[in-house]
Structure formats: C-alpha cells, structure tokens
Amino acid sequence: xxxxxxxxxxxxxxxxxxxxxxxxxxxxxxxxxxxxxxxxxxxxxxxxxxxxxxxxxxxxxxxxxxxxxxxxxxxxxxxxxxxxxxxxxxxxxxxxxxxxxxxxxxxxxxxxxxxxxxxxxxxxxxxxxxxxxxxxxxxxxxxxxxxxxxxxxxxxxxxxxxxxxxxxxxxxxxxxxxxxxxxxxxxxxxxxxxxxxxxxxxxxxxxxxxxxxx
Length: 214
What we know:
The mean pLDDT is 88. The chain has helices at 2-9, 20-34, 38-50, 55-70, 76-91, 97-109, 115-128, 145-149, 188-213. It is an all-alpha fold.
C-alpha cells in the first residue's frame, strides 16, 4: 500500500494523453484487469490518474470492461463500474480516486467471461446481412383489426400461462430459425445461467414432441 501511495503522490514524468503512452497505459490497465491482477491494475490506474488522465475516460473503460470481460459471470460488476462512474461525476477528483480504485480491484478479482462479447460480435454480423428479414407473424404487434385479420399476433403463446413460463414458440426470423449466439461459460453466475438454459431447452424439446404426436 505504501508503494501505491508513493506512486499516487508523485506525477509521472511521461504521460501524453493524446499519444502512444496514453494507449499503452489504458492497454496495460485493461490487460491487468483481464488477467485478474489487482495490484498491477491499481498501479496502472494510479499512473493514469496522477498523470492527469480524465477520470471519466477511465470510468467509461471500466464500464466497458465489466461487460466485455466479466459479463454474466458476475452481473454485479457492471453495477460497480457504473457506481464508480457516478462517483466521479458526483464527487470529482481527487476524492473519487478511491471509487475508481474500488471498482478496479472488484473487476480484477471478479470471475471472467467473454461469452457476452463473443455473442454480440457474432449477432452484429448476422444483423448486417438480415436487416430485411420480417418479424414472425406470431410475435408481431396487433393493435388494429386489420392487423389481426392479416395474422399479426396469431398463434402467440403467452409464457406466463405455462408451468415454467416456457412455451414452444419461435422468436427468430424464419431464415435464422435455430441460430444460437450466447453460449454461457461455467464460471460463477454464468454457470447457473447455462444450467437454466439447458433446463429450458429440455422443456421446449418435450413440448415439441407433444405437439408432433398430436
């Protein structure tokens, strides 16, 4: 702790907020967080803050990190990052340095998952090539009689009437039927999500078998 305080009490000699060193330092912080090293993460945070970096820039990067590298393995991580950003806006510097330090240590020691990042990266590519695919009739909004006559909302199954709130319903466009994007890891809370999704899938498969046998 003494060494960290020494770093935070002395201005670094080299820190160009618009140049290469700026990007080197934020890269070092991000990679230290991803590598679950709270000590290195605190060091690079202090280097940036004491060098005059905009604390809101750091806070924004922490919010991004919370979703990109922690995700649903620990959903609380995003709330912690958002709280640090709000503290920077409410308290300001230098008092908000500890809020950022708290967020950094939390993120560094949180379980890691990039499943959300990978899922959204893939889905963005699909969306670029499928912007004209129509919404299935069964899940379209039907506020008028004409829309209802055209089949909007027809055959929609209301999940809350089912015992597990799971129904045999297709929500994707026809050409993307069965497409999967999100594959949860086994880490912490995301592991629970993975179990839940597998359980729901078994229910849906059983419902499909019942429908086919009718």
